[in-house]
Write a structure and sequence with these properties.
single chain; mainly alpha; two-stranded antiparallel ribbon; 4 strands
Length: 442
Protein backbone atom coordinates (compact mmCIF):
# COMPACT_ATOMS: atom_id res chain seq x y z
CA UNK A 1 0.00 0.00 0.00
CA UNK A 2 1.36 3.41 -0.91
CA UNK A 3 1.22 6.41 1.42
CA UNK A 4 -1.19 8.13 -0.94
CA UNK A 5 -3.75 5.42 -0.12
CA UNK A 6 -3.47 5.98 3.64
CA UNK A 7 -6.19 8.26 5.10
CA UNK A 8 -4.95 11.72 6.04
CA UNK A 9 -6.31 11.37 9.58
CA UNK A 10 -4.19 8.30 10.12
CA UNK A 11 -1.07 10.05 8.76
CA UNK A 12 -1.66 13.02 11.10
CA UNK A 13 -2.10 10.71 14.08
CA UNK A 14 1.16 8.89 13.32
CA UNK A 15 2.97 12.23 12.85
CA UNK A 16 1.80 13.52 16.23
CA UNK A 17 2.75 10.24 17.89
CA UNK A 18 6.25 10.63 16.38
CA UNK A 19 6.61 14.17 17.79
CA UNK A 20 5.73 16.20 14.68
CA UNK A 21 3.22 19.00 14.68
CA UNK A 22 1.94 18.00 11.25
CA UNK A 23 2.64 15.61 8.43
CA UNK A 24 6.14 16.35 7.09
CA UNK A 25 6.17 18.03 3.69
CA UNK A 26 7.19 15.85 0.82
CA UNK A 27 6.25 12.61 2.63
CA UNK A 28 4.13 11.42 -0.27
CA UNK A 29 7.25 11.41 -2.50
CA UNK A 30 8.57 8.61 -0.32
CA UNK A 31 6.70 5.99 -2.36
CA UNK A 32 8.72 6.73 -5.51
CA UNK A 33 12.09 7.08 -3.79
CA UNK A 34 14.81 4.45 -3.61
CA UNK A 35 14.87 4.90 0.15
CA UNK A 36 11.56 3.08 0.46
CA UNK A 37 12.95 0.05 -1.34
CA UNK A 38 16.04 0.00 0.89
CA UNK A 39 13.87 0.33 3.98
CA UNK A 40 11.69 -2.58 2.89
CA UNK A 41 14.77 -4.80 2.45
CA UNK A 42 16.05 -3.83 5.90
CA UNK A 43 12.64 -4.45 7.51
CA UNK A 44 12.22 -7.86 5.85
CA UNK A 45 15.74 -8.85 6.86
CA UNK A 46 15.12 -7.76 10.44
CA UNK A 47 11.74 -9.53 10.78
CA UNK A 48 12.72 -12.60 8.74
CA UNK A 49 9.82 -12.12 6.33
CA UNK A 50 10.22 -13.21 2.70
CA UNK A 51 8.93 -11.01 -0.10
CA UNK A 52 5.87 -12.08 -2.04
CA UNK A 53 6.89 -14.05 -5.11
CA UNK A 54 6.60 -17.35 -6.92
CA UNK A 55 7.32 -19.45 -3.81
CA UNK A 56 4.68 -17.61 -1.83
CA UNK A 57 2.15 -18.06 -4.66
CA UNK A 58 2.84 -21.82 -4.77
CA UNK A 59 2.41 -22.05 -0.98
CA UNK A 60 -0.89 -20.16 -1.22
CA UNK A 61 -2.24 -22.45 -3.94
CA UNK A 62 -1.26 -25.59 -2.05
CA UNK A 63 -2.81 -24.35 1.21
CA UNK A 64 -6.02 -23.26 -0.52
CA UNK A 65 -6.31 -26.54 -2.44
CA UNK A 66 -5.87 -28.67 0.69
CA UNK A 67 -8.30 -26.56 2.70
CA UNK A 68 -10.96 -26.50 0.00
CA UNK A 69 -11.24 -30.29 0.05
CA UNK A 70 -12.68 -30.29 3.56
CA UNK A 71 -13.96 -26.71 4.02
CA UNK A 72 -16.71 -24.79 2.23
CA UNK A 73 -16.79 -21.26 3.66
CA UNK A 74 -14.38 -18.87 1.95
CA UNK A 75 -13.44 -17.32 5.27
CA UNK A 76 -12.30 -20.69 6.61
CA UNK A 77 -10.21 -21.36 3.50
CA UNK A 78 -8.65 -17.89 3.67
CA UNK A 79 -7.76 -18.42 7.33
CA UNK A 80 -5.93 -21.62 6.43
CA UNK A 81 -4.02 -19.77 3.69
CA UNK A 82 -3.02 -17.02 6.11
CA UNK A 83 -1.83 -19.54 8.68
CA UNK A 84 0.39 -21.24 6.14
CA UNK A 85 1.83 -17.99 4.77
CA UNK A 86 2.58 -16.72 8.26
CA UNK A 87 4.10 -20.05 9.29
CA UNK A 88 6.40 -19.99 6.23
CA UNK A 89 7.24 -16.31 6.87
CA UNK A 90 5.89 -14.95 3.58
CA UNK A 91 4.73 -11.40 3.09
CA UNK A 92 0.94 -11.27 2.95
CA UNK A 93 -0.70 -10.20 -0.34
CA UNK A 94 -3.78 -8.06 -0.78
CA UNK A 95 -7.05 -9.57 0.49
CA UNK A 96 -8.44 -9.77 -3.04
CA UNK A 97 -5.58 -12.13 -3.97
CA UNK A 98 -6.47 -14.41 -1.07
CA UNK A 99 -10.16 -14.29 -1.94
CA UNK A 100 -9.61 -15.21 -5.59
CA UNK A 101 -7.33 -18.08 -4.59
CA UNK A 102 -9.91 -19.43 -2.13
CA UNK A 103 -12.74 -19.16 -4.66
CA UNK A 104 -10.71 -20.93 -7.34
CA UNK A 105 -9.64 -23.72 -4.99
CA UNK A 106 -13.20 -24.28 -3.77
CA UNK A 107 -14.53 -24.43 -7.33
CA UNK A 108 -11.86 -26.97 -8.33
CA UNK A 109 -12.49 -29.16 -5.27
CA UNK A 110 -16.27 -29.10 -5.76
CA UNK A 111 -15.93 -30.04 -9.43
CA UNK A 112 -13.72 -32.99 -8.47
CA UNK A 113 -16.23 -34.21 -5.89
CA UNK A 114 -19.11 -33.74 -8.30
CA UNK A 115 -17.31 -35.73 -11.00
CA UNK A 116 -16.49 -38.49 -8.50
CA UNK A 117 -20.05 -38.73 -7.21
CA UNK A 118 -21.57 -38.62 -10.71
CA UNK A 119 -19.32 -41.46 -11.90
CA UNK A 120 -20.58 -43.61 -9.03
CA UNK A 121 -24.23 -43.27 -10.06
CA UNK A 122 -25.49 -46.34 -11.86
CA UNK A 123 -27.90 -46.30 -14.79
CA UNK A 124 -31.00 -46.79 -12.63
CA UNK A 125 -30.09 -43.90 -10.33
CA UNK A 126 -29.41 -41.61 -13.29
CA UNK A 127 -32.77 -42.44 -14.81
CA UNK A 128 -34.59 -41.84 -11.52
CA UNK A 129 -32.88 -38.48 -11.05
CA UNK A 130 -33.73 -37.48 -14.61
CA UNK A 131 -37.38 -38.29 -13.96
CA UNK A 132 -37.30 -36.06 -10.88
CA UNK A 133 -36.24 -33.15 -13.07
CA UNK A 134 -38.87 -33.77 -15.75
CA UNK A 135 -42.23 -32.03 -15.59
CA UNK A 136 -45.22 -33.97 -16.89
CA UNK A 137 -47.48 -31.94 -19.17
CA UNK A 138 -50.73 -32.70 -17.34
CA UNK A 139 -49.28 -31.99 -13.89
CA UNK A 140 -48.75 -28.56 -12.39
CA UNK A 141 -45.80 -29.60 -10.26
CA UNK A 142 -42.81 -31.81 -11.00
CA UNK A 143 -41.43 -34.61 -8.81
CA UNK A 144 -38.60 -32.17 -8.02
CA UNK A 145 -41.10 -30.01 -6.15
CA UNK A 146 -42.24 -33.05 -4.17
CA UNK A 147 -38.62 -33.82 -3.27
CA UNK A 148 -37.97 -30.31 -1.98
CA UNK A 149 -41.28 -30.10 -0.13
CA UNK A 150 -40.70 -30.04 3.60
CA UNK A 151 -43.05 -32.45 5.42
CA UNK A 152 -45.49 -31.26 8.03
CA UNK A 153 -44.96 -31.73 11.72
CA UNK A 154 -44.63 -35.50 12.33
CA UNK A 155 -47.46 -36.99 14.38
CA UNK A 156 -48.54 -40.51 15.20
CA UNK A 157 -51.71 -40.04 13.15
CA UNK A 158 -49.63 -39.38 10.03
CA UNK A 159 -47.24 -42.31 10.39
CA UNK A 160 -48.47 -44.00 7.21
CA UNK A 161 -47.99 -40.81 5.21
CA UNK A 162 -44.44 -40.36 6.46
CA UNK A 163 -43.53 -44.00 5.84
CA UNK A 164 -44.85 -43.72 2.29
CA UNK A 165 -42.73 -40.61 1.75
CA UNK A 166 -39.66 -42.45 3.06
CA UNK A 167 -40.39 -45.39 0.75
CA UNK A 168 -40.69 -43.00 -2.22
CA UNK A 169 -37.30 -41.48 -1.40
CA UNK A 170 -35.72 -44.92 -1.25
CA UNK A 171 -37.17 -45.71 -4.67
CA UNK A 172 -34.84 -43.08 -6.15
CA UNK A 173 -32.05 -45.70 -5.90
CA UNK A 174 -29.50 -43.38 -4.28
CA UNK A 175 -27.37 -45.72 -2.17
CA UNK A 176 -25.29 -44.23 0.67
CA UNK A 177 -22.11 -45.92 -0.62
CA UNK A 178 -21.73 -43.40 -3.44
CA UNK A 179 -21.06 -40.64 -0.89
CA UNK A 180 -18.06 -42.30 0.74
CA UNK A 181 -14.91 -40.15 1.02
CA UNK A 182 -16.95 -36.98 0.40
CA UNK A 183 -17.00 -34.65 3.45
CA UNK A 184 -20.39 -33.96 5.02
CA UNK A 185 -19.88 -30.23 4.64
CA UNK A 186 -19.69 -30.66 0.86
CA UNK A 187 -22.78 -32.85 0.75
CA UNK A 188 -24.72 -30.36 2.83
CA UNK A 189 -23.66 -27.56 0.51
CA UNK A 190 -24.66 -29.54 -2.60
CA UNK A 191 -28.04 -30.32 -1.03
CA UNK A 192 -28.59 -26.69 0.01
CA UNK A 193 -27.74 -25.47 -3.48
CA UNK A 194 -30.10 -28.00 -5.05
CA UNK A 195 -32.90 -26.98 -2.69
CA UNK A 196 -32.56 -23.36 -3.80
CA UNK A 197 -32.99 -24.17 -7.52
CA UNK A 198 -36.15 -24.93 -9.48
CA UNK A 199 -36.46 -27.46 -12.28
CA UNK A 200 -35.53 -25.01 -15.03
CA UNK A 201 -32.42 -23.82 -13.20
CA UNK A 202 -31.34 -27.40 -12.47
CA UNK A 203 -31.68 -28.37 -16.12
CA UNK A 204 -29.50 -25.41 -17.11
CA UNK A 205 -26.57 -26.92 -15.19
CA UNK A 206 -24.06 -29.35 -16.64
CA UNK A 207 -25.07 -32.99 -16.36
CA UNK A 208 -22.37 -33.76 -13.81
CA UNK A 209 -23.35 -30.95 -11.48
CA UNK A 210 -27.08 -31.51 -12.03
CA UNK A 211 -26.96 -35.19 -11.08
CA UNK A 212 -24.65 -34.53 -8.15
CA UNK A 213 -26.87 -31.84 -6.63
CA UNK A 214 -29.99 -33.96 -7.15
CA UNK A 215 -28.40 -37.03 -5.56
CA UNK A 216 -27.20 -35.00 -2.58
CA UNK A 217 -30.68 -33.56 -2.03
CA UNK A 218 -32.29 -37.00 -2.23
CA UNK A 219 -29.82 -38.26 0.36
CA UNK A 220 -30.41 -35.28 2.65
CA UNK A 221 -34.20 -35.58 2.38
CA UNK A 222 -33.97 -39.31 3.10
CA UNK A 223 -32.07 -38.52 6.27
CA UNK A 224 -34.67 -35.96 7.29
CA UNK A 225 -37.43 -38.49 6.58
CA UNK A 226 -35.73 -41.04 8.82
CA UNK A 227 -35.50 -38.41 11.57
CA UNK A 228 -39.16 -37.52 11.17
CA UNK A 229 -40.24 -41.15 11.33
CA UNK A 230 -38.10 -41.74 14.39
CA UNK A 231 -39.64 -38.69 16.06
CA UNK A 232 -43.11 -40.11 15.46
CA UNK A 233 -42.28 -43.50 16.89
CA UNK A 234 -40.50 -41.98 19.88
CA UNK A 235 -43.76 -40.22 20.69
CA UNK A 236 -45.75 -43.36 19.97
CA UNK A 237 -43.70 -45.55 22.31
CA UNK A 238 -43.68 -42.84 24.99
CA UNK A 239 -47.46 -42.60 24.78
CA UNK A 240 -47.84 -46.38 25.12
CA UNK A 241 -45.70 -46.43 28.24
CA UNK A 242 -47.49 -43.44 29.74
CA UNK A 243 -50.83 -45.15 29.16
CA UNK A 244 -49.51 -48.29 30.82
CA UNK A 245 -48.30 -46.30 33.84
CA UNK A 246 -51.70 -44.66 34.14
CA UNK A 247 -53.38 -48.06 33.92
CA UNK A 248 -51.13 -49.33 36.72
CA UNK A 249 -52.09 -46.43 38.98
CA UNK A 250 -55.78 -47.01 38.28
CA UNK A 251 -55.36 -50.73 38.94
CA UNK A 252 -53.60 -50.08 42.25
CA UNK A 253 -56.29 -47.62 43.30
CA UNK A 254 -59.00 -50.15 42.50
CA UNK A 255 -57.25 -52.87 44.56
CA UNK A 256 -56.32 -50.93 47.67
CA UNK A 257 -58.67 -53.11 49.72
CA UNK A 258 -56.93 -56.24 48.46
CA UNK A 259 -53.56 -54.81 49.48
CA UNK A 260 -54.91 -53.85 52.89
CA UNK A 261 -56.28 -57.38 53.28
CA UNK A 262 -52.92 -58.95 52.45
CA UNK A 263 -51.19 -56.68 54.95
CA UNK A 264 -53.78 -57.61 57.58
CA UNK A 265 -53.21 -61.30 56.83
CA UNK A 266 -49.45 -60.84 57.16
CA UNK A 267 -50.00 -59.03 60.43
CA UNK A 268 -52.10 -61.92 61.73
CA UNK A 269 -49.50 -64.47 60.61
CA UNK A 270 -46.79 -62.52 62.41
CA UNK A 271 -48.83 -62.38 65.63
CA UNK A 272 -49.56 -66.11 65.38
CA UNK A 273 -45.87 -66.82 64.98
CA UNK A 274 -45.08 -64.81 68.12
CA UNK A 275 -47.55 -66.72 70.32
CA UNK A 276 -46.15 -68.85 73.13
CA UNK A 277 -45.81 -72.55 72.54
CA UNK A 278 -43.89 -75.01 70.47
CA UNK A 279 -43.13 -74.67 66.78
CA UNK A 280 -45.96 -77.10 65.98
CA UNK A 281 -48.41 -75.03 67.98
CA UNK A 282 -47.38 -71.78 66.28
CA UNK A 283 -47.59 -73.42 62.85
CA UNK A 284 -51.04 -74.72 63.73
CA UNK A 285 -52.11 -71.19 64.71
CA UNK A 286 -50.85 -69.82 61.38
CA UNK A 287 -52.68 -72.61 59.54
CA UNK A 288 -55.95 -71.82 61.28
CA UNK A 289 -55.55 -68.21 60.13
CA UNK A 290 -54.88 -68.74 56.44
CA UNK A 291 -56.11 -72.25 55.63
CA UNK A 292 -59.73 -71.31 54.79
CA UNK A 293 -58.59 -68.81 52.13
CA UNK A 294 -55.15 -70.12 51.21
CA UNK A 295 -55.87 -70.38 47.47
CA UNK A 296 -57.40 -66.91 47.32
CA UNK A 297 -54.52 -65.42 49.32
CA UNK A 298 -51.99 -67.03 47.00
CA UNK A 299 -53.81 -65.74 43.95
CA UNK A 300 -53.95 -62.23 45.41
CA UNK A 301 -50.24 -62.34 46.26
CA UNK A 302 -49.30 -63.37 42.73
CA UNK A 303 -51.50 -60.64 41.28
CA UNK A 304 -49.92 -58.05 43.55
CA UNK A 305 -46.41 -59.31 42.87
CA UNK A 306 -46.94 -58.95 39.12
CA UNK A 307 -47.28 -55.17 39.51
CA UNK A 308 -44.94 -54.70 42.47
CA UNK A 309 -42.22 -52.08 42.21
CA UNK A 310 -44.34 -49.94 39.88
CA UNK A 311 -44.08 -52.61 37.20
CA UNK A 312 -46.49 -51.38 34.54
CA UNK A 313 -45.27 -53.76 31.83
CA UNK A 314 -48.18 -56.22 32.16
CA UNK A 315 -50.54 -53.35 31.25
CA UNK A 316 -48.56 -52.41 28.16
CA UNK A 317 -50.00 -55.24 26.08
CA UNK A 318 -53.52 -53.84 25.93
CA UNK A 319 -52.27 -50.59 24.39
CA UNK A 320 -49.56 -52.08 22.19
CA UNK A 321 -51.94 -54.36 20.30
CA UNK A 322 -53.48 -51.36 18.52
CA UNK A 323 -50.07 -50.06 17.39
CA UNK A 324 -48.53 -53.39 16.40
CA UNK A 325 -48.83 -52.78 12.66
CA UNK A 326 -47.35 -49.29 12.93
CA UNK A 327 -44.30 -50.49 14.86
CA UNK A 328 -43.69 -53.36 12.45
CA UNK A 329 -44.00 -50.99 9.49
CA UNK A 330 -41.36 -48.73 11.02
CA UNK A 331 -38.90 -51.58 11.64
CA UNK A 332 -39.41 -52.84 8.11
CA UNK A 333 -38.79 -49.39 6.67
CA UNK A 334 -35.42 -48.71 8.32
CA UNK A 335 -32.10 -50.49 8.13
CA UNK A 336 -30.71 -51.66 11.44
CA UNK A 337 -26.96 -52.19 11.72
CA UNK A 338 -24.89 -53.47 14.60
CA UNK A 339 -22.28 -51.13 16.05
CA UNK A 340 -20.36 -54.12 17.41
CA UNK A 341 -19.92 -57.81 16.71
CA UNK A 342 -23.02 -58.58 18.81
CA UNK A 343 -25.96 -59.10 16.45
CA UNK A 344 -28.37 -60.66 18.94
CA UNK A 345 -30.85 -57.79 18.94
CA UNK A 346 -30.89 -57.46 15.15
CA UNK A 347 -31.42 -61.22 14.83
CA UNK A 348 -34.29 -61.05 17.32
CA UNK A 349 -35.99 -58.19 15.47
CA UNK A 350 -35.60 -59.99 12.16
CA UNK A 351 -37.03 -63.11 13.81
CA UNK A 352 -40.14 -61.19 14.87
CA UNK A 353 -40.53 -59.59 11.45
CA UNK A 354 -40.23 -62.98 9.76
CA UNK A 355 -43.00 -64.36 12.01
CA UNK A 356 -45.16 -61.27 11.85
CA UNK A 357 -48.12 -63.11 10.34
CA UNK A 358 -47.82 -66.19 12.54
CA UNK A 359 -51.07 -67.18 14.28
CA UNK A 360 -49.59 -69.39 17.01
CA UNK A 361 -49.45 -68.26 20.62
CA UNK A 362 -45.78 -69.16 21.08
CA UNK A 363 -42.77 -69.21 18.78
CA UNK A 364 -39.92 -71.61 19.54
CA UNK A 365 -36.63 -69.78 19.91
CA UNK A 366 -34.66 -73.02 19.73
CA UNK A 367 -34.67 -75.27 16.70
CA UNK A 368 -35.61 -78.87 17.14
CA UNK A 369 -32.65 -81.23 17.44
CA UNK A 370 -31.79 -82.94 14.18
CA UNK A 371 -28.75 -84.88 15.23
CA UNK A 372 -26.56 -81.83 14.63
CA UNK A 373 -25.82 -78.85 16.82
CA UNK A 374 -29.02 -76.88 17.38
CA UNK A 375 -29.30 -73.11 16.92
CA UNK A 376 -31.24 -70.85 19.25
CA UNK A 377 -32.21 -67.20 19.36
CA UNK A 378 -29.95 -65.23 21.69
CA UNK A 379 -32.14 -63.15 24.00
CA UNK A 380 -29.50 -62.33 26.58
CA UNK A 381 -30.10 -58.61 25.98
CA UNK A 382 -33.67 -58.79 27.31
CA UNK A 383 -33.95 -57.02 30.67
CA UNK A 384 -35.17 -58.87 33.74
CA UNK A 385 -38.55 -57.07 33.99
CA UNK A 386 -39.34 -58.15 30.45
CA UNK A 387 -38.23 -61.75 30.73
CA UNK A 388 -41.47 -63.25 32.14
CA UNK A 389 -43.43 -61.56 29.35
CA UNK A 390 -41.14 -62.43 26.45
CA UNK A 391 -39.86 -65.89 27.32
CA UNK A 392 -42.01 -67.42 30.04
CA UNK A 393 -41.24 -70.99 28.99
CA UNK A 394 -38.34 -70.81 26.49
CA UNK A 395 -40.75 -69.85 23.71
CA UNK A 396 -41.20 -66.35 22.32
CA UNK A 397 -44.72 -65.01 22.60
CA UNK A 398 -46.10 -64.58 19.11
CA UNK A 399 -49.47 -63.15 19.98
CA UNK A 400 -47.53 -59.96 19.19
CA UNK A 401 -48.51 -58.09 22.32
CA UNK A 402 -45.28 -58.64 24.22
CA UNK A 403 -42.29 -59.57 22.09
CA UNK A 404 -41.92 -56.46 19.95
CA UNK A 405 -42.32 -53.80 22.66
CA UNK A 406 -39.80 -55.72 24.73
CA UNK A 407 -37.27 -55.42 21.96
CA UNK A 408 -38.12 -51.76 21.48
CA UNK A 409 -37.74 -51.22 25.21
CA UNK A 410 -34.40 -53.00 25.25
CA UNK A 411 -33.04 -50.75 22.51
CA UNK A 412 -33.54 -47.84 24.85
CA UNK A 413 -32.47 -49.67 28.03
CA UNK A 414 -29.14 -50.82 26.62
CA UNK A 415 -28.37 -48.14 24.04
CA UNK A 416 -24.77 -48.58 22.93
CA UNK A 417 -24.41 -51.79 24.96
CA UNK A 418 -26.97 -53.47 22.76
CA UNK A 419 -25.10 -52.13 19.77
CA UNK A 420 -27.98 -51.27 17.47
CA UNK A 421 -28.54 -48.14 15.46
CA UNK A 422 -30.67 -47.11 12.51
CA UNK A 423 -28.54 -46.36 9.49
CA UNK A 424 -28.94 -42.84 8.16
CA UNK A 425 -27.53 -42.25 4.67
CA UNK A 426 -26.00 -38.81 5.12
CA UNK A 427 -24.77 -38.60 8.66
CA UNK A 428 -22.82 -41.24 10.59
CA UNK A 429 -25.19 -41.29 13.54
CA UNK A 430 -28.52 -39.51 13.44
CA UNK A 431 -29.96 -37.55 16.34
CA UNK A 432 -33.31 -39.37 16.62
CA UNK A 433 -31.75 -42.71 17.47
CA UNK A 434 -30.34 -41.25 20.67
CA UNK A 435 -33.74 -39.73 21.46
CA UNK A 436 -35.33 -43.10 20.71
CA UNK A 437 -33.00 -44.81 23.21
CA UNK A 438 -33.56 -42.15 25.89
CA UNK A 439 -37.34 -42.29 25.43
CA UNK A 440 -37.58 -45.98 26.28
CA UNK A 441 -34.99 -45.74 29.05
CA UNK A 442 -37.21 -43.21 30.81
Amino acid sequence: MSLSDVPVALLEHIARSAGYDSVPAGLLRYDASSVRRRHMLLIRDYTGVKAWGEDAHVAMEKASGDAARTLEDLSDIINVILEQLVRQRFELPAFSVLQRAAQHARAVANREYQSLLCDRLDTVARERLSILLTRVDDETKSPWHRLKLEPKQPTAQKNREFLDHLAWLKEQAIVPAIFRDIPDVKLKQFAAEARSLDVASMNDLTETKRLTLAAALVCAQTGHALDDNADMYVRLVQRLHNQARTALLEYQAEHVERTDGLVATLHGVTLAYRTEGSAEQRLSAIGELIEPDVDEILEQCEAHQATAGRNYLPFLTRFYSHQRAALFSFLESVELVSTSSDRSMIDAIRFLIAHRKSRVDRLPIKEEATGEETASLDLSFVGEPWWPLVVPDARLKASSCDGLPALVRTVRDHGGDAGVEVRRPLYPRWRSLQRFQRAVRE
